[in-house]
Amino acid sequence: MQNFSKIKTLSNWIYWILSLCIVIIPVYYLSFWFLINNTDFPLDAITTGATPIEPRTLPTEILAAGYLSSIFPLTVLVFVLLSLRKIFQLYKKGIVFSLEHVALFKKTAKLLVFWVLVSIAYESVKSVLFSLENPPGEKVLSIGFGSDEVTVILVAAFVYVIAWVMDEGRALAEENEMTI
Amino acid sequence: MAIKINLDLMLIKRQMKSNELARLVGITEQNLSILKRGKAKAIRVSTLEAICRHLQCQPGDILEYTDDD
């Protein structure tokens, strides 16, 4: 029972942190493209792949294209966060093992893998956009798959295994519930 | 299901109501209803013992095996 109380309390905190992230992360994505020309942060310090871009401001069309391309990874990430928030909402209510949990864990794992794929595409688009106005021969298309991506895919695999564990737990909980 | 629960019959024989038995055994009326309808996946020995004690019967009076085949 003590654990149950701890689960509820901590889940409540995590629920609100995730809610905050759902608001903050889109703002970050938006501000990245809208403020990129207006901050003290030097544009040439942003590296796309291994090649730094020329120091200059980006034209509006490129900013718009960059913002539009950021919508895809942002949307997937928001869905990941919404899915996680739903899991903790159930924990918050005291529902620990349910079919909904199993479905949500599987959905989160799949979304994480999808997020990695979309993020790779987004980073590639960024590399093209940042170097679009470079002189011929200095334009860059960078496609990266690094340790960050591997980490997220590993986490997705763990989450998928947890979904199976949750399913076993749900079956046990159901059996326990039907034991008189 | 191959195991039939004859709790209703025993309650009639002993002229006892479900809610009274549930109270005496220490389970909820909802759980007793699950048991009576044969929806339970398992019955605890302690629950069976309490039912038998209060209905003054044997486990065999409540549980009946029928061959479905």
Automatic annotation (TrEMBL), chain A:
<protein>
    <submittedName>
        <fullName>DUF2975 domain-containing protein</fullName>
    </submittedName>
</protein>
<feature type="transmembrane region" description="Helical">
    <location>
        <begin position="62"/>
        <end position="84"/>
    </location>
</feature>
<feature type="transmembrane region" description="Helical">
    <location>
        <begin position="150"/>
        <end position="166"/>
    </location>
</feature>
<keyword id="KW-0812">Transmembrane</keyword>
<keyword id="KW-0472">Membrane</keyword>
<feature type="transmembrane region" description="Helical">
    <location>
        <begin position="111"/>
        <end position="130"/>
    </location>
</feature>
<feature type="transmembrane region" description="Helical">
    <location>
        <begin position="12"/>
        <end position="36"/>
    </location>
</feature>
<dbReference type="InterPro" id="IPR021354">
    <property type="entry name" value="DUF2975"/>
</dbReference>
<dbReference type="Pfam" id="PF11188">
    <property type="entry name" value="DUF2975"/>
</dbReference>
<keyword id="KW-1133">Transmembrane helix</keyword>
Automatic annotation (TrEMBL), chain B:
<feature type="domain" description="HTH cro/C1-type">
    <location>
        <begin position="13"/>
        <end position="62"/>
    </location>
</feature>
<dbReference type="InterPro" id="IPR010982">
    <property type="entry name" value="Lambda_DNA-bd_dom_sf"/>
</dbReference>
<dbReference type="Pfam" id="PF13443">
    <property type="entry name" value="HTH_26"/>
</dbReference>
<protein>
    <submittedName>
        <fullName>Helix-turn-helix transcriptional regulator</fullName>
    </submittedName>
</protein>
<dbReference type="InterPro" id="IPR001387">
    <property type="entry name" value="Cro/C1-type_HTH"/>
</dbReference>
